[in-house]
Amino acid sequence: MKYNRLFYRNITFKCNNKCRFCISHNTKRQNTSIVEDSLKSIKICDSEYNISNSDLFIISGGEPTVSPEFNDIIDFLLKRHCKIVIYTNGRKLDSINQTFLGNSNIRWIIPFYGLSENHDYYTNTKNSFYETFECVHKLKKEWLPRISIKFLIKKRNQIQDFYKLYSMLKVFPEFHFSAILDNNINEQLLIATEISDLIKAIFEDGKKVKISNLPLCRLKNGTLPDISSEYDLQKELKIDEYYFIKKKITAKMEYDKLHCWLDKCSKCSLHRYCTDNSLCYRPLAIDRSNMFLDEE
Hints:
Elements: E1 3-10, H1 39-49, E2 55-60, H2 70-79, E3 83-87, E4 106-112, H3 116-123, H4 128-137, E5 147-153, H5 159-168, E6 174-179, H6 185-194, H7 196-204, E7 208-212, E8 239-244, E9 247-250, H8 251-256, E10 284-287, E11 290-293
Parallel strand pairs: 1-2, 1-8, 2-3, 3-4, 4-5, 5-6, 6-7
Antiparallel strand pairs: 7-10, 8-9, 10-11
């Protein structure tokens, strides 16, 4: 589906994790001008932009499910008929309005940083892996198509964790691979090569795989389906306008900022796929023999 606009809102900076690389739960201490969005401010956004079924609304934090207004905000957005993406660590899924979990207008993105030792280290929170895993393990089968499991990779020595995690979470239909943003380029190049076999195995199992922050030229041969070098990614940009808090960013502005991993990138047929899509929320997706841009 083509979305005319994307809205991104942080509804709280509080979080029940303390991730080592995340600034959101420290935002207030950093004296920034960014403020939390309340139900009131989202209603003001609606009155200004008339949110509708052609819009995509991303809800983040902090951990959005700890906001006391979480249920009311989601209920309001559902009445506007827009599509909703929620970033959550998954630890409180059993405490929210359970009808949201099966709603076809909502997608949930839940991250894992490895098995318990690595996950708890990066979240800086004891038992966070166990609590997230227990919550997703208890989800009803009919809810699973609404869940995207995101594997966040910091170092190559974590990679074996994700092979094991996939075997534990194999019932889910979608997996997203991403290197953590503060990785150095050399580490990301090596991670891409070493994670290739798992990526290929997952989409050969009939799952959808998404990739961001990983250089595609370093994936092993045969990991990705063949694509045409004439493919024009600019025509595939799905969102015309993107509103990060109150700042408007156009698709063309994002397209013009696509970065290169290496000096040779600009001459590569994969260049327009192979970018950090964290700002435009359109990761590369692989679905069996197809490759395309998808919404987050």
